[in-house]
UniProtKB/TrEMBL annotation:
The lineage of its organism: Bacteria, Bacillati, Actinomycetota, Actinomycetes, Micrococcales. It comes from Myceligenerans xiligouense. It comes from the Bacteria. GO terms for cellular component: plasma membrane. This is Uncharacterized protein YlxW (UPF0749 family). The keyword Ion transport does not apply.
């Protein structure tokens, strides 16, 4: 015996939610609130909120502003430990700077005393002449004479573009070109180059023997035969390199000078080199068959290897190991 069938479901049973939305779009809570307002209005009571909405918004804005202000002041307030460390570092920088100035003055005074003793006639004339030649070669004595001046100036189109600033490698290239052109003494930004001088960078600053140069214009002075320097420099790759710099907004200039005065270089401290004693197997002083290059990277003919350094160098291949090694050697020599 089959059970009696139950009532059939309504065809629109699956649309109950849609029917509720269409028939009663307002939430029952809103309807109740509207009904209460209507009752208060009918009873003669005020239906306005106790606190106006704009007052509430103003209070909220003031509260948020105070919270943000307190947070910013808390973050910007210097921490005692950081302030103390910064003050200590500043004091150390000032102290070390004073020590450097004092030692530099003492070094100059001692050098002057040594010169007085040498000029007093206590040394044979041959030794004095050799000593004078060594000082000229090493750059430890001031020199004067005619020569050539090359200037490089940062571009002023965009301060944040590194290609429009003069790099240390640019000065290295110019210095090497001048050495190869026959320069006898060179100074960069008033700093005399010696056999162990280095031109390098620290951030955006260019250093010569750890002394920062003041930009945006950099002056390279070379003493030598002006006519020979101009001719040989024009034959070198220096002018082409300066043209490359010009396309990047860096201004350059080359001019001869009738009289240049280059200061003495800083005293050199030899930590590993020493004069060989008798029987040590090393070359004796005056031995002309050593066959090696002269001090400071000079070739036997008195010129220096001209090896462009830096990505601006024309005619170098970064994939060529020989060119890369040559650039590394130039960057280490600094001149």
């Amino acid at each position: 015996m089959n059970a009696a069938p139950g009532p059939r479901p309504r065809p629109d049973a699956s649309m109950t939610l849609l029917n509720e939305v269409m028939k009663r779009p307002l939430d029952p809570g809103y309807a109740a609130a509207a009904r209460r307002r209507a009752e208060r209005r009918a009873a003669g009571e005020s239906t306005e909120p106790r606190v106006p909405a704009h007052v509430v918004a103003m209070l909220v804005a003031v509260g948020l502003g105070m919270i943000v202000t307190v947070a910013v002041l808390h973050l910007r307030a210097p921490q005692p430990a950081a302030t103390q460390a910064r003050s200590l570092l500043a004091d150390q920088v000032v102290e070390r700077s004073l020590q450097i100035e004092s030692l530099t003055d003492r070094s100059v005074a001692l050098a002057a005393a040594v010169d007085e003793l040498e000029n007093a006639g206590t040394l044979p004339s041959s030794l004095r002449e050799a000593n004078d030649r060594d000082k000229l070669t090493n750059g430890t004595t001031a020199v004067s004479g005619p020569g050539l001046v090359v200037t490089l100036t940062d571009g002023g189109l965009a301060d944040d573009e590194g290609d429009q600033r003069v790099w240390d490698t640019d000065l290295q290239f110019v210095v090497n070109a001048l050495w190869a052109s026959g320069a006898e003494a060179i100074a960069v930004g008033g700093e005399r180059l010696t056999a162990v001088s280095a031109i390098r960078s620290a951030g955006d600053a260019i250093l010569v023997d750890l002394q920062p140069l003041n930009g945006p214009s950099y002056r390279v002075e070379a003493i030598g035969d002006p006519e020979k320097l101009q001719v040989e420099f024009a034959r070198s790759s220096g002018p082409a390199y300066l043209q490359v710099l010009g396309t990047q907004g860096i201004e350059s200039g080359v001019q001869s000078a009738e009289e240049l005065l280059l200061p003495a270089g800083r005293p050199q401290t030899l930590r590993w080199a020493a004069q060989p004693g008798p029987g040590s197997g090393g070359p004796e002083p005056g031995d002309e068959e050593s066959g090696g290059p002269e001090p400071g990277g000079a070739e036997p003919d008195g010129t220096r290897n001209e090896s462009p350094a830096g990505s601006r160098s024309p005619g170098t291949d970064p994939d060529d190991p020989d060119d890369t090694a040559q650039q590394d050697d130039t960057a280490k020599d600094g001149a």
